[in-house]
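Is this the right way to post structure tokens for a design question? Let me know if I should format differently. Anyway, here goes:
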């Protein structure tokens, strides 16, 4: 039962599924029937049989429906066929009529067709002609512009040519771009642009080469214009310094610069043309970089000096002219173009140039030994700086450099004046200036500030105390101040600064140059005592004249010497030092002269007795000293006294050394007596007061050592000497035991040959024993002194 029910259920489901499949087949496109039919075979076994049965049933149903429909419409179909058969005859008749009409129409239309084709052909020709004219009208401007372009290139109007190319590319060629000749034109335009760039760059290179040659002329013209504006002249008139401003041209400096500029001397069109061309071509930056790079190279070449530039002022002038010309060109390009040069670039170039210029001038000026050339160089630097300052270039470093060159200028002046001073000293006769008339006296005092009431009261002829070199030195010092002042022209410095510069340079002249010349003069071997005395007198008067030199500088600068920062002249110390050096030379030469006389001494140290008179050499020496000290009357008292005391001490020392000379082995009593006569003459000379001002027997004390030594031997007072030795009140306090021993031993060695001592030895042997006893005691004293020391 259950099995039967299950079979019935499956049968119902199968029937339902077949109905669905049939509906799907009926409603679906035939291309999609395959999957539907496959599902029939995928179902239960033998399902397709049941489906075929179901399909047969459905077909039969549809056939019955079709049959019903055909039966319903059959009568209408029969009626339609009947009507169609009736129309057939009329259609055949109409077809004949149409065919006949068409034939007749074709025959009539052949001529019209021929005429129509001719009209069409003419219309096409007319249209082509119109089109050709229109195209030609479009092409003619292009050809005209291209022809214009060629003319512009031939006439070197490259900027206009570039504008024409731009119009061709943007306006004319696009209208007729399909034509071959326009394509050829368009392809040729870039090449023409490159040609224009190359040509303009070549012109620029020629310009850069030309500007190097013209820079010298440009700079010369500009510097000449500035130099001619205002000229400051410092000159002397009746011994007074005058400052004059020469207004050679009435216009201002800026107006002068506008009169004749770099543009008037150089054609800048290649720069402008090349700039415009590269700007139009969109390559302006390349052009700017190239121009700046080339100008920087040229700047380095311009700043490179010639090897022998320092020899002449023309070398410096050409150097400055080229630099001024270079920077004037740069200034013109800076202001006449927009962006080709910038202020930063020109400032960079100028700073580089300033560093190089200052280094070059510092080096080359150091080799210059001519003060006139250094002064001319300074004037050139001032004009150079003023010229470039007028164009806005900062020049403070140049004026700072001038202060360094000022020191170099002062050094060259000092060297020049050293030669002048030495020549004056060489030509001086070192004797007081003889004045025969009032005119000669006025001539001297007009050159040197000398005032002496006593000398003025004297009648002519008379003599001035200083020698001829004094007024000459004074005049040359003033000339040096004039020369030093010339460097201050146009330096834009205050008179206070100028006053300070003059005083400092004058101090250098006095303390270094003149002082050195005086020191050198006093050391010369041909300068004798008379000349040294005159030198001392001269330095005294020059020292007194220093205040007049200060007044002279004050009159020039109008700066009061009481100003806080005013430098004082060091002439007082200079001439004092020179005077002290001369005094030292006097002492030295006096001693040398004494030594020369001493060398003439020819004592017979073994003589049995003296000649009874002083030696000839010593008398000559005393006469020389006496005449020399008479010349010293013009010297300050202390100088003469010191010289006299020094000479006497040196003479005493030399005589003492003579008798104590180690090479002298034997001295007789007669020689001692002769030596004593010479010392007596020395003491007489000292007591005669050869130089006034000594108190009592001060000068005679120079010979006290000799006197006590000789008295000891002449009196033979050994007992007193030995007894009082070491006592402050000793009669022979100045006699040293070693000195007495040395001389006694020299006399002891001669006792064997001396007849006097022979008689002593024969008559009084005790005396000989006494000598030996004294020698022993003296040796004991000497040994005691050495142990004590």
């Amino acid at each position: 039962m259950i099995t039967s029910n299950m079979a019935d259920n499956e049968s119902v489901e199968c029937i339902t599924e077949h109905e669905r499949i049939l509906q799907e087949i009926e409603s679906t496109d035939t291309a999609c029937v395959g999957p539907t039919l496959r599902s029939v075979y995928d179902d239960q076994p033998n399902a397709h049989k049941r489906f075929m049965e179901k399909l047969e049933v459905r077909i039969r149903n549809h056939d019955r429906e079709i049959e019903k429909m055909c039966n319903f419409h059959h009568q209408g179909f029969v009626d339609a066929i009947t009507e169609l058969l009736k129309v057939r005859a009329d259609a055949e008749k109409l077809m004949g009529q149409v065919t006949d009409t068409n034939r007749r129409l074709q025959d009539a239309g052949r001529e019209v067709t021929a005429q129509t084709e001719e009209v069409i052909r003419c219309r096409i020709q007319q249209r082509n002609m119109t089109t050709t004219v229109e195209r030609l009208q479009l092409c003619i401007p292009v050809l005209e512009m291209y022809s214009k372009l060629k003319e512009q290139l031939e006439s070197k109007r490259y900027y206009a040519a570039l504008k024409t190319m731009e119009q061709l590319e943007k306006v004319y060629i696009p209208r007729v771009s399909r034509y071959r000749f326009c394509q050829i034109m368009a392809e040729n335009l870039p090449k023409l642009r490159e040609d224009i760039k190359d040509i303009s760059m070549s012109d620029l290179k020629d310009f850069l080469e030309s500007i190097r040659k013209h820079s010298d002329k440009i700079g010369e013209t500009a510097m000449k214009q500035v130099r001619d504006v205002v000229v400051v002249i410092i000159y002397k008139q009746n011994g007074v310094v005058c400052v004059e401003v020469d207004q050679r041209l009435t216009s201002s400096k800026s107006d002068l610069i506008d009169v004749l500029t770099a543009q008037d001397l150089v054609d800048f069109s290649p720069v402008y043309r090349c700039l415009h061309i590269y700007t139009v071509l969109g390559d302006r930056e390349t052009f700017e970089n190239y121009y700046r790079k080339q100008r920087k190279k040229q700047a380095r070449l311009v700043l490179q000096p010639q090897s022998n530039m320092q020899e002449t002022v023309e070398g410096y002038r050409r150097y400055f002219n080229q630099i001024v010309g270079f920077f004037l060109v740069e200034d013109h390009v800076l202001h006449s173009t927009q962006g080709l040069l910038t202020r930063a670039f020109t400032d960079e170039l100028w700073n580089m140039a300033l560093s190089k210029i200052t280094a070059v001038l510092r080096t080359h000026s150091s080799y210059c030994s001519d003060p006139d050339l250094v002064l001319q160089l300074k004037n050139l630097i001032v004009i150079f700086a003023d010229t470039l300052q007028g164009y806005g270039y900062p020049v403070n470093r140049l004026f700072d450099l001038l202060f360094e060159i000022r020191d170099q200028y002062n050094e060259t002046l000092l060297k020049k004046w050293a030669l002048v001073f030495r020549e004056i000293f060489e030509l001086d006769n070192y004797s007081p200036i003889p004045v025969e008339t009032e005119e000669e006296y006025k001539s001297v005092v007009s050159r040197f500030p000398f005032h002496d009431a006593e000398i003025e009261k004297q009648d002519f002829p008379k003599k001035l105390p200083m020698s001829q070199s004094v007024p000459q030195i004074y005049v040359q010092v003033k000339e040096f101040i004039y020369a030093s002042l010339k460097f201050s022209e146009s330096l834009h410095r205050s008179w206070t600064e100028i006053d300070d510069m003059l005083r400092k340079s004058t101090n250098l002249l006095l303390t270094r140059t003149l002082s050195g010349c005086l020191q050198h003069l006093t050391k010369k071997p041909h300068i004798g005592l008379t000349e040294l005395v005159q030198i001392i007198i001269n330095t005294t008067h020059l020292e007194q004249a220093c205040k007049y030199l200060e007044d002279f500088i004050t009159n020039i600068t109008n700066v009061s010497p009481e100003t806080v920062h005013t430098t004082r002249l060091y002439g007082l110390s200079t001439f004092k030092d020179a005077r002290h050096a001369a005094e030292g030379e006097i002492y030295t030469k006096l001693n040398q002269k004494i030594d020369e006389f001493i060398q003439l001494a020819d004592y017979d140290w073994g003589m049995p007795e003296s000649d009874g008179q002083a030696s000839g050499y010593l008398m000559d020496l005393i006469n020389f000293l006496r005449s020399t000290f008479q010349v010293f009357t013009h010297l300050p008292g202390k100088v003469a006294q010191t010289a006299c005391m020094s000479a006497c001490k040196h003479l005493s020392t030399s005589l003492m050394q003579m008798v104590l000379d180690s090479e002298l082995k034997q001295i007789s009593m007669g020689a001692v007596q002769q030596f004593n006569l010479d010392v007596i003459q020395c003491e007489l000379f000292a007591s005669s007061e050869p130089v006034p001002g000594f108190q009592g027997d001060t000068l005679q004390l120079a010979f006290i050592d000799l006197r006590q030594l000789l008295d000891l031997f002449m009196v033979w007072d050994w007992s007193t000497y030995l007894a009082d030795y070491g006592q402050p009140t000793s009669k022979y306090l100045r006699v040293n035991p070693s000195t007495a021993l040395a001389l006694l031993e020299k006399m002891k060695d001669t006792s064997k040959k001396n007849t006097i001592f022979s008689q002593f030895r024969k008559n009084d042997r005790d005396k000989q024993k006494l000598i030996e006893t004294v020698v022993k005691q003296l040796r004991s004293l000497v040994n005691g002194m050495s142990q004590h020391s």
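Format looks fine. Someone answered above. Worth noting: Confidence is low (pLDDT under 50) at residues 230-259, 754-761. The longest strand covers residues 230-237.
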